[in-house]
Amino acid sequence: MSTVPPEDAERAPTRRKMAAALRYDQDHDAVPRMVARGQGELADRIIDAAREHGVDVYEDPDLVEILCQLDVNQMVPPKLFLAVAEVMAYVYRMNNRYDEVREMMAKDRSPGSNRKP
Known about the structure:
2 strands; two-stranded antiparallel ribbon; name from scop; globular; flagellum; 3 helices; alpha+beta
């Protein structure tokens, strides 16, 4: 659904696609750090690489715009902790759901299961 009337669509400002990739390892990192950022084609490549490696992609245009102001390898500053924590909570929830579904599928395929794939 568009909120811009068709006759004004050409004049409407558009955001260039942006992507930011964060890394956080509880055992090694005190806080998440920026590992990649980019716009346009580079943003597409970052997103494609994430998906190819099974990394969940979370879309928040306002947050990515702020994160892209960080330098690569820069730790996320305290003022962004809450926003990044929300993203991480989403990713953890998605990963847990994936694990649950994978376990259910494994049980359905186990010998003696009544279900067919």
